[in-house]
Amino acid sequence: MEEVKLLGFWPSPYSHRVIWALKLKGVKYEYIEQDLRNKSDLLLQYNPVHKKIPVLVHGGKPIAESLVILEYIEETWPQNPLLPKDTYERALARFWIKFGADKGPIFSVLFRYTEEEQDQNAIKEVVECLKILEEQALGDKRFFGGENIGMVDIAYGWLCHWFKATEEMIGVKLLEPSTVPRLHAWVERFKQVPIIQENLPDYTKLLAHFKSLRKKFTASDQPSNDR
Amino acid sequence: MGEVKLHGTWPSAFSYRVIWSLKLKGVPYEYIEDLSNKSSLLLQLNPVHKKIPVLVHDGKPICESLIILEYIEEIWPHNPLLPTDPYERALARFWLKFAEEKCPAMWIAYRTSGEEQEKALKDTLEMLRAIEEHGLVGKKYFGGEKIGMVDIAFGQIAQWLGVIEEIVGVKLLEPQTFPRLHTWIKNFKEVPVIKENLPDRDEMLVVYKRLRERLLTSP
C-alpha cells in the first residue's frame, strides 16, 4: 500500500472532509499541518493552481480540491462506500454536493458582517437554502446518505461546528429546531457518529480563529477561502 | 436501453456539453428546445434550479451539465470521456471543478458593465492563464490524444468566448499570449462531432447582443 499524506489546516472544514473519509474507510495516512500565512514550498509544489489545502498525496502524487479528493478516495478504497451503488442515486448525491458548493458564497457573506450590518436579504437566502436542503435533500432520512453517512453528509459537515461558530460570532441563529427541525436533528446525529465526534476541531479554538479571521476581512476587505 | 430526452436551449454552452457527450457515445436522444425558458415542464423536472439542461433517462431527470456528463459516462461507458486510472480521473475532475468555478467569469463580463465587468474580465484572464500554464502542457487535448470530459467542459472557451469578446469589445485570448489554448481551440473545433454540432457564430452574435442590451437596461 502506497503512502498517503494529507496536507491540511486544523480549522478548515475542507480538511476535515478528507479526514472523515479516510478514517471511515480505515485508510492510514500521515497528517501534515500547514501554515497558511506562510505557505510551504511543498504546498506550492503540490497545488500550484490554487495554492490551497487540503491536498492528498498518494504515492507521491498530489490531488487538490476536497470534493475531488473524496471521489478519488471512494474509487481507490471502495470499502465502506460513501456514494450509492445505483447510478441515478449517485447523480442525485452529486447534485446535492454541488448545490452546497454553489451556495458557498451565500454563507461566506454571512460570515463577514456583524449583526447590525447583516443584510436581511443575505439572511433570507441562507434560510431558504437550509430549507431546501431539509425538504428536498434530507427529507425524513436519518442521514443524507440514508441509514449511514455518505459523501453528501461529509460535504455538509461544515454545518456543525463551523456554521454554529459563524452564528455565534454574528449573533444570529438560523439553523434552529424551530426553522429547520429535521436538518437540526441531522446536525446533532452527525456529530454523534464516532468518527466525526473524534475528529472535530475544538469549538472554542475554532470560534476564536473565526473571530480573528473576521477582523482581517473587515480590515482589508479581502475574501479568503483559506479557512 | 431506456428513452433519453434532453431539455435544452439554443445556443446554451451547457446544452451543448450534453449534446456533444451523447453524440460522442452514439446515444440516440430526443432534443426538446425549452422555448419559454421557464416552462411548467422544466419547473417540474428541475424544481431546485429551474434551469436547462435537464437529461431525462427512463423518465428520471438529472440536472446540472457536469453531473449529467458523469451520469452519461457511467451509463454508457464505451468511448470513455474520463481516464480509467483513478489518479488521472482525479486530475480530470480537478479541471472540471476549475471550469465550474472559473468559467462563470466570462459570462459575468458579458452581462455587466463598469467596475463589475472590469473585475470579471480580469478573472477571465486569470482563468485562461492558469489553463495555459498548467492544464494543457504537452497535450493535444485536455483528455490527451482524444477529447474527453474536460475538453467538453471548456468548450465554451472554444466558441462562446469569442462571441463575448466581440460583443464587449475586449480581446482576451490573444494567440501570442495563449499559444497552447489557441491551438487547442483549433483542434477541438476540428473534431467531427464538435464541428458538426457548434452553434453558428453570426447567429449567436445576434442573440447574445440582443440579450445583453435587455440585461443592461432592465432594472
From TrEMBL, chain A:
Molecular-function GO term, any one: glutathione transferase activity
Q: Which UniProt keywords apply?
A: Cytoplasm, Transferase
The chain positions of domain GST N-terminal read: 2-81
**InterPro entries in alphabetical order:** Glutathione-S-Trfase_C-like, Glutathione-S-Trfase_C_sf, Glutathione_S-Trfase, Glutathione_S-Trfase_N, GST_C_Tau, Omega/Tau-like, Thioredoxin-like_sf
Instruction: Give the domain of life.
Output: Eukaryota
Leading EC class = transferase
A GO cellular component term found in this entry reads: cytosol
The alphabetized list of GO BP terms reads:
glutathione metabolic process
Catalysed transformations (reactions): RX + glutathione = an S-substituted glutathione + a halide anion + H(+)
| GST C-terminal domain sequence ranges | 86-217
Q: Could you tell me which Gene3D superfamilies the record lists for this protein?
A: 1.20.1050.10, Glutaredoxin
Q: Where in the cell is it found?
A: Cytoplasm, Cytosol
The record's EC number reads 2.5.1.18
- Whether Transferase counts among this entry's keywords is yes
Primary subcellular site in the record, as a coarse category: cytoplasm
Q: Which family does it belong to?
A: Belongs to the GST superfamily.
- Main function: Is involved in the conjugation of reduced glutathione to a wide number of exogenous and endogenous hydrophobic electrophiles.
Q: What is this protein called?
A: Glutathione S-transferase
User: Which organism encodes this protein?
Assistant: Fagus sylvatica
TrEMBL record, chain B:
Q: Cross-referenced SUPFAM superfamilies, in alphabetical order?
A: GST C-terminal domain-like, Thioredoxin-like
Q: Which GO terms describe its biological process?
A: glutathione metabolic process
| Domain of life the protein comes from | Eukaryota
Q: What is its EC number?
A: 2.5.1.18
| This protein's GO CC annotations | cytoplasm
Cross-referenced InterPro entries, in alphabetical order? Glutathione-S-Trfase_C-like (IPR010987), Glutathione-S-Trfase_C_sf (IPR036282), Glutathione_S-Trfase (IPR040079), Glutathione_S-Trfase_N (IPR004045), GST_C (IPR004046), GST_C_Tau (IPR045074), Omega/Tau-like (IPR045073), Thioredoxin-like_sf (IPR036249)
* Presence of the UniProt keyword Transferase in the record: yes
Q: Give residue ranges for domain GST C-terminal.
A: 85-215
- UniProt keywords, alphabetically: Transferase
All residue ranges annotated as the GST N-terminal domain in the record: 2-80
Q: Name one GO molecular function term.
A: glutathione transferase activity
What's the catalysed reaction?
RX + glutathione = an S-substituted glutathione + a halide anion + H(+)
Q: Could you say which protein family the record assigns here?
A: Belongs to the GST superfamily.
What is this protein's record name? glutathione transferase
Q: Which organism is it from?
A: Fagus sylvatica (Beechnut)
